[in-house]
Amino acid sequence: MVELTGSTLSLEEARRVIFEKESVFLSEASMVKVQKSREAVERIVKEKRVVYGINTGFGKFSDVLIDQGDVEELQLNLIHSHACGVGDPFPEEVSRAMLLLRANALLKGYSGVRPVLIERLIELLNKQIHPVVPQQGSLGASGDLAPLSHLALVLMGEGEVYYKGEVQPALPVLTKESIFPIQLQAKEGLALINGTQAMTAMGVIGYLEAEDLAYQSEMIASLTIEGLRGIIDAFDEDVHIARGYPQQVATASRIRDYLKDSKLTTKQGELRVQDAYSLRCIPQVHGASWQTLDYVKEKLEIEMNAATDNPLIFDDGNKVISGGNFHGQPIALAMDFMKIAIAELANISERRIERLVNPQLNDLTPFLSPQPGLQSGAMIMQYAAASLVSENKTLAHPASVDSIPSSANQEDHVSMGTIGSRHAYQILQNTRRVLAIELICSLQAVEHRGIDLMAEATREFYENSRKIIPSITKDRVFSKDIEKTAEMLTSLHWQQYARTRKSAIKGGNN
């Protein structure tokens, strides 16, 4: 089980909770802080002190005072009016991550919610009842208001949930699981929705998948090196130490490890003096993407443990400050940066695909066809890869450079971080398919060269992949192969894969 404290949640713990459905329990010490924070809110209400979000309106209505008898209705109206999400729902894993991250943020004890609210979030998480949350409608400041409102609806017995593989109305599911809907009290609605947990949850899912894909890209590239009889000298450790980037050094180290006993690689001058950049510069390009992923990981782990609602309560309620921690700019920039990094893995992969299929660039069968001319082989797979990388270039346009004023210009600069995180995830799916195409082509190329000449590591990967991807002996509907290969990569958690081999990942980036 994972203990939530509000301050110590890691991406690896998040992975276990989100994907492996590991249960969560709440730190007793943190819950004491939550209770004290709640008592402070109740004193504010009782003493009729004017505090934003507790007994005032929201946004441009912050100067409108609310009668003490109406503070609960204020919270209910807030959730109803802000549940304006549209479009397809987030993947269920993202919804699960939102529950985890929102509970962790409230557990810091700065938000003034009752302990029961956090307990209910964790109960939903542990019983795998996940809110259905539309993807579109957030500006990324004041936090993810629309998406988080749809999460809050479920706590109130409204909205829809994912439950046992189906989308169902929330109330019957809560009743079945003996979970009682909550009537929100002072500040609790605002505390639930004023945060960055939609963009961060989407970012966490994207990062975890991107990390696996970046490792996979190195193994796939290693097969391509063998298929093209690439020059191994370019991966010499001295070359990469001379430049000094640890991630570049680590990438080169892993590829040397994968290819250490290969009889298909060559030395410089043996067949040619130099390889094209898409082979020779793999450590430099992939390493730069790893640098970006390391940056993204740092920002996500900070944000996962951050207090991002407003106002925040300090000093037992003697200091209540309306600030701007809900502003998603740190995650917006990280997501835009991740978009570019993952898109580059696809860009260089597509160039390696071209070298595998273009008879003017290799000595393999044209387009890896079993009967060139009569059968087209991998010709149009390269088209598909080119289309995907082109689409990625559009999606990689930074969302964070845009801003539209809202709430009558009270909220006059917003992050668009949720758009950035969604586009990063789309780029990730496209890139996985590009790498799937490279894998299909590289498997065919090494088969042509002789699988008995492959390195131990790449041959093991070849044999495992061939269980999913049959050899190209005749033209067929390759769309199915691409999707099956992408599904294989999605299910392959690379750290676990590496631990099953003697040559486990060396010089890891994270």
TrEMBL record:
Pfam families: Lyase_aromatic (PF00221)
Family assignment from sequence similarity: Belongs to the PAL/histidase family.
EC annotation from Swiss-Prot or TrEMBL: 4.3.1.3
Protein name: Histidine ammonia-lyase
Class of the enzyme per the UniProt entry, highest EC level: lyase
GO molecular function: histidine ammonia-lyase activity
Lineage of origin: Bacteria, Bacillati, Bacillota, Bacilli, Bacillales
Matches recorded under NCBIfam families: hutH, PRK09367.1
Source taxon at top rank: Bacteria
Keywords assigned: Cytoplasm, Histidine metabolism, Lyase
Locations listed in the record: Cytoplasm
Natural source organism: Bacillus seohaeanensis
Post-translational modification: Contains an active site 4-methylidene-imidazol-5-one (MIO), which is formed autocatalytically by cyclization and dehydration of residues Ala-Ser-Gly.
Reactions catalysed, as given in the entry: L-histidine = trans-urocanate + NH4(+)
